Amino acid sequence: MSLLSPNKILLIKHGSLGDIVFALEPILSIKKKFNNSVIDLVTEEKFIPFFKKTKMFDQYLVDNRAGLFSTFALIRKIINGKYDLIIDLQNSKRTNFYNFFTKIFSRSRINGSRSFVHDRYVIPVQGKESPTQGLYNQLKLLGINKSDHDFSWLVSDKEDQSIEHKNVVLIIPGVSKSGRSKQWSSIKYQQLCSFLESKGYYICLVGTKHDAMSFQPILDGCKNIINLIDKSPPEIIYSVATKSKLIISNDTGPGHIAALSKVNILWLALDNSVTKANLSFQQNNHMLLKNKMEDLSVNEVQDFIIKNKLLDKVE
To answer: At 300, which helix (H) or strand (E)?
Structure first.
């Protein structure tokens, strides 16, 4: 079967929530290009409910990135799947290991940016392009181009109605365990939220119970809180973001979900080439960057919001 019209395609994508979001538009572009193909997905079990909302995939192959036995079991499933085309969107050492065996024991054509593929995109030095741009460059080898997408499928039918008819600022103060260096002070977040509250805005908090230390000062210091802590899967984050006046976030996965809404988002993040590449490509992104997060003051954030007219009621 010609790669112009493959009967059966396998995509490989796992990683962090941020990794998933960076790949989302390229994934949707693959579906647009190969709309008549059967498309399966290798991903972690925890991301399957999210991917099901795209109504794009015919079958899911679970890859929780466990031990050697499960790894070879997955490789066997990939080989037995008899895919015409495999698109590796993870491009990790692990998925390159999968590709090594798949390339030897199957007739699948493999697209990726690691060594054991047929159609290889060579990734430039980190920070030269965003992950999304890099994946689109990889997909150009298959004739897939960047396109605009409608994310209305991500709107939740269980959205919290408490944000209706309110001036809401969505605040995302948490980070992953590995991202502590990218986190702005929870006390400074509370001071900023108190300022926004004094101007008539409601503060909506999203995240998980593991972010408790990030949220507690805000919960203690503010009154007009819409508390969605541990009640904010990706579809809730996106739905709330679409109805917010502004999003303020650390460089973290839930922030990238919120950014899909195209609502103005203010990133409080580290000043380096990787951050700039990752955050600058989305529409309506604004960045306040520092070499160290502790060097960013509340006054600087307030002044940035005022200067850039990110909120109507703040002067």
So the answer is: helix 298-307
Q: What is the pLDDT of residue 25?
A: 95
Residues whose CB falls within 8 Å of the CB of residue 311, separated by 6 or more in sequence, listed in order: 169, 196, 199, 201, 245, 246, 305
Q: What is the Cα–Cα distance from 60 to 78, expressed in whole angstroms?
A: 11
Write down the pLDDT at residue 161. 66
Partners of 40 in the β-ladder: 10, 59
196: containing domain: 154-307
The DSSP call for residue 209 is G
In 3D space, the residue among 243, 208, 205 whose CA is nearest the CA of residue 222 turns out to be 205
Which among 132, 149, 166 is the end of a domain?
Answer: 149
Task: State the pLDDT at residue 160.
Answer: 59
Provide the terminal-to-terminal Cα distance of the chain, rounded to the nearest Å: 62
| Rounded Cα gap, residues 130 and 138, in angstroms | 12
Region of 229 (left: φ > 0; alpha: ψ -120 to 50; beta: rest) is: beta
- What whole-number distance in Å separates Cα of residue 177 and Cα of residue 189? 18
pLDDT at 3: 62
135/169 same-domain check: no
Enumerate the β-bridge partners of residue 246: 169
Q: What is the mean pLDDT of each run of 10 residues along the chain (315 residues)?
A: 80 94 96 96 96 96 94 97 98 97 97 97 91 96 91 79 84 90 96 97 93 92 94 93 96 94 96 90 88 97 96 85
CATH code, 43: 3.40.50.2000
What pLDDT was estimated at residue 282?
73
Q: CA–CA separation, 179 vs 182, rounded Å?
A: 5
Q: State phi, psi for 93 to the nearest 5 degrees.
A: -60, -35
